[in-house]
Design a protein that fits this description.
Rossmann fold, 21% strand, hydrolase, 8-stranded mixed β-sheet, acyltransferase activity, 17 helices, transferase, hydrolase activity, Alpha-Beta Plaits, Nucleotide_cyclase, single chain, alpha/beta, 521 residues
Length: 521
């Protein structure tokens, strides 16, 4: 820490104050004052002195907590200023989460880009949003895989890994049916969760979020590749300085304390290199193909002048998610604690209260693996699936797959996670190749309906049709699968296109090579 940077001293004072550690906040002021006097023979700036005086007055009027083991509580209302941070393991990664509020509705908030659970409480504006949400729900918050208080420097996650991290948090707090609230880059992950686990999603709330992270001819509102590179250069150049709120929250551009807090928040949420990698990762997201599979009550809130996510992107979501309610607010701020924070919470409260009675959807988002085994040394027509049933069954079990149909040489299986379907195909190919057999596979992710022990739907048909394009030893996957496993370590190469009834345009597919990053991904 640079001892003469008053902005850093003030940010730390805010953090300590939010934790209820007023004495440490005042001690930080003393350190700042002494350093300035010793090195520059100057007194702290008026803003720093005012903060000190405010905190000193607060210390003399605030009651002591009943127990040192309890979280500090605000002067009014009894809500903890900073709750305890808990951890849950998800595929070996520690995920940090906090829980506040005691309303009858469970709501999990997934922020965009990077976050820090503890530093969030140091912003009075963000604190206000959390307290309002906690007035009508049990608010669950998490730092995503690779950010904030969760395990960091562990490589880029896939979106499905982050989705499973969220499920692990919900399991840890005993939330069986939850309102899932995603902002900005956290939105696509919440959409994937709602499509994959409709029975656990009471409602879906999206704010300032998108379906695709980069420009394309059929999605012309996202940032171009050139703009993304400019954004990354700006992040690298300005990291650590008082944050430029020009895009995130123009209404707060002249709020010095907010800019200093936001810079400290970002610095403590990720390293510069990780922040850049995660920003780039967020621009590679494409969940357009899963939007028609979302069948839970959905609220989409979009700010009309948002500089990061255009209003057309919010309208696109509303058009492609069945029955979605779309609310457009006047303003320019992207963050949830900006100029429309109270209006946003008002809309959420009304919507989720009504959504409590919603019935979980019966249609599911699954990844379908079609697989065919052949013996290049024999044309006997033997039942190869049955002969190697134990090997196939063991790999399905490891990947949490479920066989639904089979013939002597072909098999269909379904998975909740696309990476695991490909991982299973790779493992089966490897095991059976040792027996001199050829295996070709195809994977597609889409909507199916469960009927007893069977599944029906267009995803089954498309996976089977894709298999016809694969040569022995090949694994091919649809564009939908490729877009959902960004960051998995798999390599996808253009392979071809086919007409797909029930889907607009043609379905592009790719050959798959490599191995997922992390067993069980």
């Amino acid at each position: 820490m640079e001892p003469l940077r008053e902005d850093i001293h003030r940010a730390l004072m805010h953090v300590y104050a939010a934790q209820g550690r007023i004495n440490l906040a005042l001690k930080q002021y003393d350190n700042c004052r002494d350093a300035l006097q010793r090195e520059l023979r100057l007194q702290p700036e008026p803003e720093t002195r005012h903060l000190h005086d405010t905190l000193r007055a607060r210390r003399t009027t605030s009651p002591r907590p009943a127990s040192a083991s309890e979280p500090p509580r605000a002067e009014a209302g009894g809500e903890p200023l900073r709750p305890y941070t808990h951890y849950v393991k998800s595929s070996g990664v520690s995920i940090a989460y906090q829980v506040t509020g005691d309303g009858p509705i469970d709501l999990i908030y997934v922020p965009g880009w990077v976050s820090n659970l503890d530093l969030a409480w140091a912003s009075p504006r963000l604190l206000h949003v959390f307290q309002r949400l906690g007035s009508f729900c049990r608010l669950i918050r998490m730092d995503k895989h690779g950010t904030g208080l969760s395990d960091r420097n562990i490589g880029l996650p896939t979106m499905e890994e982050r989705m499973e991290d969220m499920r692990a948090v919900l399991d840890a707090v005993g939330s069986k049916r939850t309102v899932v609230f995603g902002g900005s880059e956290g939105g696509p992950m919440c959409m994937l969760f709602a499509a994959t686990y409709p029975e656990r999603t009471a409602a879906l709330v999206l704010n300032g979020t998108y379906a695709r992270g980069r420009w394309s001819k059929d999605y012309p509102w996202a940032r171009t590749a050139e703009q993304v590179e400019e954004d990354l250069a700006t992040i690298e150049r300005q990291w650590g300085e008082p944050a430029d709120m020009g895009n995130a929250a123009p209404s707060l551009m002249n709020d010095t304390s907010e800019r200093e807090w936001f810079a400290a928040y970002l610095r403590n949420s990720a390293s510069p290199a990780d922040a850049i990698s995660l920003w780039r990762w967020g621009t590679e997201i494409d969940v357009r193909d899963i939007l028609p599979v979302i069948h839970v009550p959905t609220l989409i809130v979009q700010t009309s002048g948002d500089r990061w996510v255009k209003r057309e992107e919010g309208r696109y979501l509303a058009t492609h998610i069945e029955g979605a309610r779309y609310v457009e607010l006047t303003g320019r701020d992207h963050v949830i604690w900006g100029e429309n924070s109270d209006r946003l919470v008002d809309e959420i409260e009304v919507f989720v209260t009504n959504a409590l009675q919603a019935t979980p959807g019966e249609r599911l988002l699954v990844s379908v693996l079609s697989l065919e085994i052949s013996d290049p040394h024999s044309d006997s027509g033997a039942d190869l699936i049955e002969r190697h049933a134990d090997e196939i069954r063991s790999q399905l079990l490891l990947a949490e797959g479920r066989q639904i149909r089979r013939s002597p040489s072909r098999m269909l299986a379904v998975f909740q996670r696309p990476t695991r379907s490909i991982q299973c195909a790779i493992a089966i190919r490897h095991r059976l190749r040792q027996s001199g057999l050829d295996v070709r596979s195809a994977v597609h992710t889409g909507e199916c309906e469960e009927r007893g022990d069977d599944f029906t739907g267009i995803a089954i048909e498309l996976s089977s049709r894709l298999l016809d394009h694969a040569r022995p030893g090949e694994i091919i996957a649809s564009r939908t699968v490729r877009d959902l496993v960004v960051g998995s370590g798999l390599t996808f190469e253009d392979y071809g296109e086919m007409e797909a009834s029930g889907m607009p345009g043609v379905l592009a597919f790719f050959s798959v090579s490599g191995a997922p990053s992390g067993a069980g991904g």
